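Good morning C.,

I know you're traveling, so I'll keep this short. The sequence:
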Amino acid sequence: MKAAPQAQQRLIDLQELDSSLDRLAHRRRTLPELAEVARLEERLTELRDAIVAAETAVGDLEREQKKAEQDVDQVRTRAERDQRRLDSGMVTAARDLTNLQSEIASLQRRQSDLEEVVLEIMERREEADAQVARLRSEQATAQQELEALAARRDTGFQKIDEEAGTTSAARTAVAKDVPADLLALYEKLRGQHGGVGAAVLHRGSCQGCRLTLNTADLNRIRAAADDEVVRCEECRRILVRTAESGL
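The tokens, ready to paste straight into the viewer:
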């Protein structure tokens, strides 16, 4: 492949701009805020699930408490009815009086047991309500942190995107100075070699793979015409010759 020395020199300018764009893209992908945003989003998802579970538990306890209170009311009503019968003097037979008094005592014990159940459920419900409140507080704090982090992330994105836009415009201008066939080869090699398609030959060393060329390769390059596009025999990148190439 042939290309004017000036066009080959422009490859180095193009490579520097492309490397800058690669670094900017890497910075964009690895902003510290991205990991924190992902962590908080995951935590918020966990909190939402935990809140649903806690609120479901509160709802279950509300129904359980309501049922227990209804049981207390039923026993209390029956005991009050029996007490009224006892107090009315309508029951006079000794055996009936004994049975009625025994039933009232039994109902009172039953009522006491059921009231203990209600109190125990109320305590559990208070704990469940407190858990919901704690989770909602943590959720609010995490949401505020997420919004602040997202704002910093977006600011970082904006700065990087602005710099990338300026660099891309400069790249477009430089690429116009490179012949189409040379540009195509450069792009192909960039894709094959980690983003570096062209490198300077500096004092006998390829600055792409950082290896020193052997004497035979240097002699071959030394004998090549100025407009010949030469390649590194080690990494196959385009080698751009300069006054510092050591030829």
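Safe travels,
E.
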